[in-house]
């Protein structure tokens, strides 16, 4: 009943009310009744269906409100992502809403670490005047907008288009750019895994149960219960390595060799899906020739995984095809961590193609598409053509395959150089590049050099701390957002409670900035009008969707016979990479750095109980994990005289941090590991301040070829006991 299908007719007839959820007196009742009951009873509970924002996955949730307070968050059983269940961070959302240290109103910088309150209108007026002045002096391209792409991004991009700047830039190069570049070229898009039905699964550093995507975990857990075989390749005993059937502690940076050898075995032993390869791919002969020398014996020497194991994996993987998948990955090996990440992602893409798993049960799949409306008719005149090339060179001749992802890590260098044009102003929304990009020290120096830094956040983060103006957005439980789609459903974020403080929704903040910068004509619409325009072809409105939060709609299934590549097929040999200065088929490239005898490779990753640098001040999550520790192998720790709990100094060529050590066999001897998301440098965040160490302070600015990713694990460090 809850998963009832919604067509326009049934929706308007109100049949959804039967499935609309609210608890009153502990019983599920239609929303109308709960609203009516609340009007007569001050102690009434109300349940508001909305969307979690404790991480970017955006699971559908139910906010349980009593006497104007959200007292509990649960998964919305109608939602395709949460299916009624939340992760630790989703459950802890109330502590972000009620965090005593969160931003409570707009602030203006008056000195180092000193801010004073400023009214919204005054802040807009001052920022708008400065933006106009800088635009007049340097041109519109002097403004960069840095953001974590979110539901609000189309409106941020609209602001930048109206301003005339091409410089909207996301976090891709610190996360997924290499994977995306590889799959975009070879598959015409980035597929996911059918985790629920997979029978044999290999993850190259995809830490499924640590870098959590709630729906994926629920599915892989169910698949494993039914006998799926899971293999974790990771130099560290990660959360997923602990959960999987096999853990292969590979030498860091060498996964590419292992994937190439798997391809070699599957081709040489004729274990591939020949019909699929013939019909749905191009370039098989070139791939075959390209991997001829990548034997298991060759890969064993590079990776430290023995040849027999590599051969066995290849045979087992192929035997389970097409319900066999190698995870395209997310942030780690194939995403951004290594200089050879694009090659690794290309090899993973080719290996999957040999299994014939695209579109097959238990293989790789593209999500269905929902046709939303075009809101441009309410968004004002056509924006002017953007001035000049992008600030970071993305999409230029040197970076032809990185059109959309940008290169945020080169920001400090570009601000310093003033080439090809001066960068003088930045707006930073929902992003903390001082701790999430590389070389924190250099990023801070760049912020200090700018004439205008505006941060839009829910808390004073390490980047906002250097801003001239800090504009507080209402948290996800206090605001609407542009509509979202998930699978064949549309989902709405809506407020569970009124804003607790003097905060606003991002759409209001962006419109306020636009009006003050002389761009009123572009922002004469409300968010509700915008959402209604998106929903129009589906016969729905925001007000209707608000009652249920999630609605199932018509969706188009992907056509796997016509991929969005030049050939319409999977491009095993791909000319686009040759044009970008790389090889025709995936080929071995060593990682950029090799640790010397006294050095370690510095690797990082995410933990299940925190999201990046966002949740370190959340009281519940802080209680579970207050700080990070440096994982060191006993064979190395012994020589350095380091025991678990000792304070150690970790130094790279760009920074130094102090942190407690954890001596464990769960880490490759060549590497040390530090969980990302700690070492907050803002005293105003009392729980998080100075707890653990900031990994990004140690990472030099490196830009990987082809994708322009930030290659965070190409960092060498030394470790010694701190005095
Ligand atoms: N709880 C939680 N969940 C999250 C997030 C979060 O912050 N917290 N963030 C979300 C986001 S934005 C993302 S991108 C994903 C990230 O999810 P994942 O892509 O799974 O990435 P990481 O957490 O970065 O995990 C990196 C893993 O790579 C391993 N690794 C390092 N070097 C190598 C190597 O050379 N070879 C191999 N095989 N492995 C290596 C590390 O030990 C670590 O276990 O998680 C998402 N989900
Ligand atoms: N060294 C190292 N660096 C990494 C990683 C790593 O493992 N190691 N992981 C990388 C990965 S995978 C990613 S995706 C990036 C993520 O990097 P970022 O996108 O910068 O994410 P966070 O560090 O969590 O910072 C997000 C900011 O958004 C704010 N925020 C949260 N909710 C809201 C909201 O509703 N509105 C507004 N306006 N702000 C909000 C938070 O308070 C926080 O300050 O980091 C990358 N950087
Ligand atoms: S995965 Fe967890 S934190 Fe992320 S949206 Fe879902 S419940 Fe929220
Ligand atoms: Mo990410």
From TrEMBL:
| Alphabetical UniProt keywords | 4Fe-4S, Iron, Iron-sulfur, Metal-binding, Molybdenum, Oxidoreductase, Signal
- Does this entry carry the keyword Iron-sulfur? yes
Checking SMART domains in the record gives: Molybdop_Fe4S4
Write down the superkingdom of origin.
Bacteria
What Gene3D superfamilies is this protein classified in?
2.40.40.20, 3.40.50.740, ADC-like domains (2.20.25.90), Dimethylsulfoxide Reductase, domain 2 (3.40.228.10), Formate dehydrogenase/DMSO reductase (3.30.2070.10)
User: Its Gene Ontology molecular function terms?
Assistant: 4 iron, 4 sulfur cluster binding; metal ion binding; molybdopterin cofactor binding; oxidoreductase activity
CDD domains recorded: MopB_CT_Thiosulfate-R-like, MopB_Thiosulfate-R-like
Cofactor(s) needed by this chain: [4Fe-4S] cluster; Mo-bis(molybdopterin guanine dinucleotide)
Flavoprotein as UniProt keyword: no
Recorded hits in PROSITE patterns, A to Z, give: 4FE4S_MOW_BIS_MGD (PS51669), MOLYBDOPTERIN_PROK_1 (PS00551), MOLYBDOPTERIN_PROK_3 (PS00932), TAT (PS51318)
- Residue stretches making up the 4Fe-4S Mo/W bis-MGD-type domain: 45-101
According to the UniProt entry, the coiled-coil residues are none
According to its UniProt record, the EC number is 1.8.5.5
- NCBIfam families, from UniProt? TAT_signal_seq (TIGR01409)
Q: Which family does it belong to?
A: Belongs to the prokaryotic molybdopterin-containing oxidoreductase family.
**Protein name as catalogued:** Thiosulfate reductase molybdopterin-containing subunit PhsA
In the UniProt record, the gene name given for this protein reads phsA
């Amino acid at each position: 009943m809850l998963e009832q299908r919604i067509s326009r007719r049934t929706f308007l007839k109100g049949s959804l009310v039967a499935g609309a959820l609210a608890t009153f007196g502990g019983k599920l009742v239609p929303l109308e009744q709960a609203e009516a009951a609340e009007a007569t009873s001050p102690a009434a509970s109300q349940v508001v269906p909305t969307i979690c924002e404790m991480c970017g996955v955006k699971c559908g949730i139910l906010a349980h409100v009593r006497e104007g307070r959200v007292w509990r968050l649960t998964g919305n059983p109608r939602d395709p992502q949460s299916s009624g269940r939340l992760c630790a961070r989703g459950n802890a959302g109330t502590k972000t809403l009620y965090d005593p240290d969160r931003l409570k109103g707009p602030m203006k910088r008056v000195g180092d670490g000193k801010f004073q309150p400023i009214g919204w209108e005054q802040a807009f007026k001052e920022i708008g005047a400065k933006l106009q002045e800088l635009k007049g002096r340097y041109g519109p391209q002097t403004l960069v907008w840095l953001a974590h792409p979110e539901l609000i991004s189309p409106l941020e991009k609209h602001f930048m288009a109206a301003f005339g700047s091409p410089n909207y830039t996301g976090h891709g190069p610190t996360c997924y750019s290499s994977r995306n570049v590889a799959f975009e070229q070879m598959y015409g898009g980035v597929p996911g895994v059918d985790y629920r039905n997979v029978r044999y699964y290999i993850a190259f550093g995809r830490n499924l149960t640590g870098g959590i995507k709630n729906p994926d975990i629920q599915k892989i857990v169910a698949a494993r219960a039914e006998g799926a075989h899971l293999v974790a390749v990771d130099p560290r005993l990660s959360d997923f390595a602990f959960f999987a059937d096999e853990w292969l502690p590979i030498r860091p940076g060498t996964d590419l060799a292992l994937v190439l050898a798997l391809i070699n075995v599957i081709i040489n032993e004729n274990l591939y899906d020949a019909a699929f390869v013939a019909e749905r791919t191009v370039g098989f002969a070139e791939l075959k020739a390209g991997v001829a020398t990548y034997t298991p014996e060759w890969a064993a020497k590079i990776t430290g995984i023995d040849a027999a194991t590599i051969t066995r994996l290849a045979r087992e993987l192929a035997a389970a095809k097409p319900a066999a998948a190698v995870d395209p990955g997310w942030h780690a090996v194939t995403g951004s961590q290594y200089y050879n990440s694009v090659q690794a992602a290309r090899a993973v893409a080719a290996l999957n193609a040999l299994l014939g798993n695209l579109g097959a049960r238990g293989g790789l799949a593209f999500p269905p598409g929902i046709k939303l409306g075009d809101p441009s008719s309410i968004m004002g005149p056509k924006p002017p053509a953007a001035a000049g090339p992008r600030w970071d060179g993305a999409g230029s001749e040197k970076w032809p395959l990185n059109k959309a992802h940008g290169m945020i890590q080169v920001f400090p260098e570009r601000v310093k150089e003033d080439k090809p044009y001066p960068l003088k102003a930045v707006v930073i929304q929902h992003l903390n590049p001082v701790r999430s990009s590389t070389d924190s020290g250099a990023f801070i120096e760049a912020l200090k050099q700018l004439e205008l830094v505006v941060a839009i956040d829910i808390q004073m983060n390490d980047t906002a701390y250097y801003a001239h103006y800090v504009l507080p957005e209402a948290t996800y439980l206090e605001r609407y957002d542009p509509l979202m789609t998930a699978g064949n459903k549309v989902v709405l974020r809506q407020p569970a409670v009124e804003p607790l403080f003097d905060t606003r929704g991002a759409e209001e903040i962006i419109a306020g900035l636009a009006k003050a910068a002389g761009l009123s004509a572009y922002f004469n619409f409300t968010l509700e009008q915008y959402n209604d325009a998106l929903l129009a072809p589906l016969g729905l409105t925001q007000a209707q969707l608000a009652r249920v939060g999630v609605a199932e709609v018509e969706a188009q299934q992907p056509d796997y016979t016509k991929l969005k590549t030049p050939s319409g097929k999977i491009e095993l040999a791909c000319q686009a990479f040759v044009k970008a200065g790389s090889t025709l088929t995936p080929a071995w490239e060593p990682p950029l750095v090799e640790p010397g005898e006294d050095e370690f490779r510095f690797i990082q990753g995410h933990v299940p109980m925190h999201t990046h640098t966002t949740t370190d001040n959340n009281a519940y999550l802080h209680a579970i994990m207050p700080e990070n520790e440096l994982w060191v192998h006993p064979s190395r720790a012994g020589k350095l005289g380091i025991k678990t709990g000792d304070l150690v100094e970790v130094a790279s060529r760009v920074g130094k941090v102090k942190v407690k050590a954890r001596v464990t066999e769960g880490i490759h001897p060549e590497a040390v590991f530090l969980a990302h998301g700690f070492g907050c440098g803002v005293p105003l965040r009392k729980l998080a301040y100075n707890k653990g160490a900031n990994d990004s302070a140690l990472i030099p600015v490196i830009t990987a070829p082809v994708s322009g990713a930030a290659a965070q694990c190409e960092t060498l460090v030394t470790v010694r006991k701190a005095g």
